[in-house]
């Protein structure tokens, strides 16, 4: 273990192997992810030297004078929060060309520069690793027994039992996958998240936008966004929720668009795109993304949903549980070389929560149900989808908050989230 992380044991991440492989092939690797997801700690496992642009004021000044001043050091060299000095991108690109060797630099960023920042393509020089907050498996809160990689390959899972209780899932929703909160209680998580959101609303949105935003309206927009988590809502409907009959200064569509842009570039907003498969019928499909935040705990905090309140509002708890499932599914799918999307027809007759698809077009349909009572309905939706799509699925799966993993007589796999892993 790197001595710089010795104060807190490093828990292995699914990104570790991806980063290692990218460094062997590419001159530089960019790690992107929401602030606090563990990018720096992961990069430090392989970096031999570093410069931290968010904590070292001299680094930013040196970058303004000549960004090449930050590139000298043992390799791989970590340039943490590189976007604070966007000129570093082209300097690294040129240096990679000059050195002609892989594994020279690791760049980490909690926000992508806006479109006004001119930079050359990193194609052929930069690898990309997208990190999210920790999954239940990465937090070592569960022992995976069903592999997403195997499901995508068409392998049927063996029966298994999950020790994770319903109350445990609510705890994980409230605490989230933040590395700093591994093992923390819900009170500590609430304090952390309140501070985290305040910094986002009062400082970071302005910094990323490059202009002053109204913190009250940004927070109201985020709260409205949290109300539609796990749903393919339009921006107009989010704005409508954010507005108040007694407040004529509520965010408008015009003001909300830059909020959404800034939050997306900070990866606070982490949306799931719609799937557009080759279908047998002429069904029109919803193209709106499914709305998610960078961690399910952000939605819970914005809605002030403690585990106790979730128990009193099971409908909202269901959406938050789906957000937890979607978060982990995306990490596991990406580790298996697949993308995660959603399927919904415009007439509302058929919706399937998530589709995992490989570059070769192999796909797995996934429905999410908190309890056992709706598994028949979920299985029916999955089978109806197979009738519409030209290519047959590798697997049909219902991810639940229940305890038993098994395969139904109709071939649909029921898998508790508490046994699911990469």
Automatic annotation (TrEMBL):
Residues 203-370 form the DUF4143 domain. The lineage of its organism: Bacteria, Bacillati, Actinomycetota, Actinomycetes, Pseudonocardiales. SUPFAM superfamilies: P-loop containing nucleoside triphosphate hydrolases. It comes from the Bacteria. Residues 28-138 form the AAA domain. Pfam families: AAA_14, DUF4143. InterPro entries: AAA_14, DUF4143, P-loop_NTPase. Transmembrane segments: none annotated. This is AAA+ ATPase domain-containing protein. PANTHER family: CONSERVED PROTEIN, DUF4143 DOMAIN-CONTAINING PROTEIN.
């Amino acid at each position: 273990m790197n001595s710089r992380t010795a104060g807190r044991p490093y828990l292995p991440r699914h990104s570790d192997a991806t980063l290692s492989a990218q460094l062997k092939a590419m001159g530089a690797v960019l790690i992107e992810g929401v602030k606090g997801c563990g990018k720096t700690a992961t990069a430090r496992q392989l970096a031999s030297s570093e410069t931290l642009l968010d904590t070292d004021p001299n680094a930013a000044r040196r970058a303004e004078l000549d960004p090449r001043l930050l590139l000298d050091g043992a390799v791989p060299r970590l340039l943490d929060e590189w976007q604070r000095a966007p000129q570093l991108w082209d300097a690294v690109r040129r240096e990679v060309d000059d050195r002609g060797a892989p594994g020279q630099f690791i760049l980490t960023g909690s926000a992508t520069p806006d479109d006004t920042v001119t930079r050359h393509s990193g194609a052929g020089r930069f690898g990309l690793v997208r990190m999210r907050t920790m999954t239940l498996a990465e937090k070592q809160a569960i022992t995976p027994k069903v592999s997403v990689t195997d499901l995508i390959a068409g392998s049927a899972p063996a029966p298994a039992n999950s020790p994770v209780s319903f109350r445990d899932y609510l705890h994980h929703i409230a605490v989230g996958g933040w590395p700093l909160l591994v093992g923390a209680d819900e009170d500590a998580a609430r304090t952390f998240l309140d501070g985290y959101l305040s910094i986002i609303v009062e400082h970071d949105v302005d910094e990323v936008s490059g202009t002053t935003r109204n913190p009250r309206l940004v927070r109201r927009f985020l709260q409205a966004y949290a109300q539609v988590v796990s749903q393919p809502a339009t921006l107009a409907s989010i704005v409508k929720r954010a507005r108040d009959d007694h407040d004529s200064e509520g965010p408008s569509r015009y003001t909300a668009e830059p909020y959404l842009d800034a939050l997306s570039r900070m990866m606070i907003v982490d949306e799931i795109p719609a799937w557009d498969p080759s279908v047998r019928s002429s069904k029109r499909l919803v193209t709106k993304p499914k709305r998610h935040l960078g961690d399910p705990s952000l939605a819970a905090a914005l809605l002030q949903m403690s585990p106790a309140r979730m128990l009193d509002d099971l409908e909202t708890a269901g959406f938050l549980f789906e957000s937890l499932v979607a978060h982990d599914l995306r990490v596991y799918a990406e580790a298996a070389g697949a993308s995660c999307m959603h399927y919904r027809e415009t007439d509302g007759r058929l919706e399937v929560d998530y589709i995992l698809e490989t570059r070769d077009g192999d796909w797995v349909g996934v429905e999410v149900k908190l309890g056992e009572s709706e598994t028949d309905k979920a299985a029916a939706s999955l089978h109806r989808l197979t009738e519409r799509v030209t290519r047959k699925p590798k697997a049909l799966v219902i991810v639940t908050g229940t305890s038993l993993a098994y395969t139904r007589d109709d071939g649909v796999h029921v898998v508790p989230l508490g046994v699911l892993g990469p």
